[in-house]
Amino acid sequence: MAMAESNGRPQHPDQNSSDGRGGEVPRTHNTSGLRYIYYRLYTKDGPIRSNNPIYANDQFISRTLPKFVTPPRTALALKKYLCKIEGLSGPTSSTTLFESLASQTAVEESFRFAVREYSGPGVSEDDPMVLVVGVEDAEKRSASTAQSDGLPEAVLPEPRYVYYSLYDDVGVLASKMSFDSDDSSLGRIESLSIPPPQTVSSLSFQVTKAEGFVTRTVQLYQDMDGEVPMTDNDHLPLQAQAYPGHLEDEPIMIVCGQESSGKAEASQVLTPLSAVDSSLLMRITGKIPFDPNKTVQADWLPFKRGEIMYTDGIKTSGFIRGNIPIAVTLR
User: Fold this and answer.
1) What is the pLDDT of residue 273?
2) Is the pTM here over 0.85, yes or no?
3) In this predicted model, which residue has the larger pLDDT, 102 or 293?
4) pLDDT over 90 for what percent of the chain?
5) 260 vs 140, residue with greater confidence
6) pLDDT given for residue 13 in this prediction
7) Rounded Cα distance, 268 and 209, in Å
8) Lowest-confidence range among 50-54, 72-76, 255-259?
9) What is the mean pLDDT of the chain?
């Protein structure tokens, strides 16, 4: 049976329903023997939303059918197709494909994946393949026309975090990712925020970006008793049951050094623990989605309905520009 294309994605001639997972497909049960390929998108800066979300409350996971990929179904062919349906101009030298988040190396472009076996890379949304694209490529991608209305709600697993404590050469520092009113030096980031290969270097980058001091050098120690810094290329098994920093009581120790180049911007000034007002540390839950205007609200944080955030305990002053329809619950 012939298949038409809508917006560059295959569409069944007798069906208008979208599975939201990389293409328009019929809602009828899949009897072809082909299985889905689940995937996530990243840049080196972290995860990016899919143009083809499959859940209303998780727009970072998507899927497609292998039969939509041009044969022979190699890693290169899959990269080309995913770039097409995700609004990217196409694979570039900075585009890499990983079998999973736990992969230490990208797959070769000639790698062929099974399309009729219910095993292998991307067979489960809990262990998806990962497409990592360049930051500039992601910024130039076509705008998404996907609608989350009508999509099912995913049963989200408990977030998995990497916990860490911050120091400089004279003592403990306050973390901007603090969540514990009794310990402002303890921060955390979600393990899913770290693109593959998940190494000490990629963890360092995500932490320094979150903390706002990307120009500073850092050294990471596996735990409080660590005497030798971890090396940049050390692999972090963040998909395993236990990994460095998986417990609040056993965080990774991060020692911040001097700036690697240039002068520190205001956002890159480290905050001593004494500057934190514990009465300002609180949990905030977004009641509605908020997407700030990039021109007049560039320093505001976008969030989704139900997303949980934490203040950093640092008192600042300023003013609000534009119409800010914010609704949050403080706890």
Assistant:
1) 46
2) no
3) 102
4) 52
5) 140
6) 36
7) 9
8) 255-259
9) 79
What kind of fold does domain 277-331 have according to CATH?
Answer: SH3 type barrels. (2.30.30)
Closest-CA residue to 305 (of 279, 325, 281, 322): 325
91/97 Cα distance (integer angstroms): 10
Show the 3-state SS of the chain. Answer: CCCEEECCEEECCCCCCCCCCCCCCCCCCCCCCCCCEEEEEEECCEEECCCCCCECCECCEEEECHHHCCCCCEHHHHHHHHHHHCCCCCCCCCCEEECCCCCCCCCCCCCECCCCCCCCCCCECCECEEEECCHHHHHCCCCCCCCCCCCCCCCCCCCCEEEEEEEECCEEECCCCECCCCCCCEEEEEHHHCCCCCEHHHHHHHHHHHHCCCCEEEEEECCCCCCCCCCCCCECCCCCCCCCCCCCCCCEEEEEEEECCCCCCHHHCCCEHHHCCHHHCCEEEECCCECCCCCCCCCCCCECCCCEEECCCCCCCCCCCCCCCCCEEEC
d(CA 206, CA 252): 14
Hey, what are 231's tokens? 């090396």
Name, in order, each residue with C-beta under 8 angstroms of 293's C-beta and a sequence gap of 6 or more: 322
CA angle at 159 for the pair 165 and 161, rounded to the nearest 5°: 20
153 pLDDT more than 80: yes
Residue partners of 185: CB distance under 8 A and separation at least 6: 165, 166, 167, 172, 173, 174, 175, 178, 273
Please tell me the distance from the alpha carbon of residue 287 to that of residue 306, in angstroms, as a whole number. 6
Domain 161-274: give its CATH code: 3.10.20
Give the whole-angstrom CA distance, residue 218 versus residue 216. 6
Average pLDDT over residues 18-26: 40
Residue limits of CATH 2.30.30 in the chain: 277-331
Bridge partners, residue 37, by sequence: 64
* Amino acid 294: pLDDT: 60
What separation, in Å, do the N-terminal and C-terminal C-alpha atoms of the chain show?
A: 57
